[in-house]
UniProtKB/TrEMBL annotation:
This is Glucosamine-6-phosphate deaminase. Pfam families: Glucosamine_iso (PF01182). GO terms for molecular function: glucosamine-6-phosphate deaminase activity; identical protein binding. The gene is nagB. It comes from Agromyces protaetiae. It comes from the Bacteria.
Length: 242
């Protein structure tokens, strides 16, 4: 059963997760972080940047793996998850860019990209702490409903609701890619500690299904129930259907 922590707001959740990550890095300077995109973890990244600066934490050896990437965006596109992770995480935290991996969404070589990413995570010794958001559809990473609970990193097709949600980052929905490369649910479950964050009413159904619903591929978030160490940090609104 996941531990559920109800927080006042994103800043309080961010401070809690940042504290756990700083403790981890202090114990293990080459800690492996699992990084999520989306708006949900941004307050956590800000809190973490502040803690690192205030405490003078040495993060030069910290390694990281992003959950997912769009397929087919031009290199350097500002909304590619490589660009987002660089802008929101690597630069403000002062991480070493070469140690932070993002799945390869280049259509050239896409047939090897999933297996290569899995091998890199394994070679790093696995993810120590995985930051997760959840989509309205219940997706984690980009594992949309119907994804196998044992799935590994691979190409997936984005659902229409997810493309509509993510259209806010692009000029129009036509520019939102149709496909992505995402860690699988099985990949995510291999991380040693999962922290799932959700804020606001729009996430209440997905959180209720993830925390209390039947474990099912139709609700990818429900896979957290299979993990022995999951912390769910939610505000009152996201917790309102628990
Ligand atoms: C995105 C990402 C997910 C994220 C989710 C929720 O599309 N691929 O990793 O958790 O959708 O996004 P947000 O945090 O902006 O609500």
């Amino acid at each position: 059963m996941a531990e559920v922590v109800i927080v006042r707001d994103q800043e309080e959740a961010g401070a809690l997760v940042a504290g756990a990550i700083v403790d981890l890095i202090t114990r293990k300077p080459d800690a492996v972080l699992g990084l999520a995109t989306g708006s949900t973890p941004l307050a956590t990244y800000r809190a973490l940047a502040n803690r690192i600066a205030a405490d003078g934490v040495d993060v030069r050896g910290v390694r990281g793996f992003a959950l997912d990437e769009y397929v087919g965006l031009p290199a350097g596109h500002p909304e590619s998850y490589r660009a987002v992770i660089t802008r929101e995480v690597v630069e403000p935290l002062g991480l070493t860019p070469e140690l932070i991996r993002v799945p390869n969404g280049d259509p050239d070589g896409i047939e090897h990209a999933g297996a290569d990413y899995e091998a890199a995570i394994t070679a790093a010794g696995g993810v120590d702490i995985q930051i997760l958001g959840i989509g309205r559809t219940g997706h984690i990473g980009f594992n949309e409903p119907g994804s196998s609970l044992a799935s590994l990193t691979r190409v997936k097709t984005l659902t229409e609701p997810t493309r509509i949600d993510n259209a806010r980052f692009f000029d129009s929905i036509d520019q939102v890619p149709m496909h992505c490369m995402t860690q699988g649910i099985g990949t995510i479950l291999r991380a040693r500690h999962l922290t799932l964050l959700a804020f606001g009413e729009a996430k209440a159904d997905a959180i209720a299904a993830a925390v209390e619903g039947p474990v099912s591929a139709n609700q990818p978030g429900s896979a957290i129930q299979l993990h022995p160490h999951t912390t769910v940090l939610v505000d009152e609104a996201a917790a309102s259907k628990l």
